[in-house]
Amino acid sequence: MPDLRADLTENLDEAEWEWLIPHVKRDAVIVVAQGLDLLDVGVAIASDNIPQVQIWIDEQLITKPSTEQLGEWNSNPQKRFQTLIVQPYVIVQEMVNS
Questions:
Q1: What is the per-residue pLDDT across 23-77, written as a single tens digit (0 to 9) for each?
Q2: If we measure between CA atoms, which residue out of 30, 5, 17 comes closest to residue 88?
Q3: How many C-beta atoms lie closer than 10 Å to residue 73's C-beta?
Q4: Most CB atoms closer than 10 Å: which of 2, 9, 17, 27?
Q5: What is the domain partition of the chain in residue ranges?
Q6: pTM of the model
Q7: H-helix or E-strand spanning residue 11
Q8: Are the beta carbons of 53 and 44 closer than 8 angstroms?
Q9: Number of other CB atoms surrounding residue 69 within 10 Å
Q10: What gap in Å lies between CA 22 and CA 69, rounded to an integer?
């Protein structure tokens, strides 16, 4: 069995907000809360772990971008995100400026 986590690790990347806009327009972006591991979410989605994904949705740890978030990000097109592509979705997490 292929190592899903290892495969997804290769898809882990950084992107600016501008790159994500087309994916938002096709309703494919999923925002992951800080503190949740992007790879854990990617593995759960890719392996159809519906119970786990549902818990995160219920706890609002994974959401579609809110109108407020979209407004904030549109005014800051250089905003950076950690991204993970899990077809057909693009899973993103805001990068916190350290």
A1: 999 999 999 999 999 999 999 999 999 999 999 999 999 999 999 999 999 999 8
A2: 30
A3: 20
A4: 17
A5: 4-94
A6: 0.92
A7: helix 4-11
A8: yes
A9: 15
A10: 16
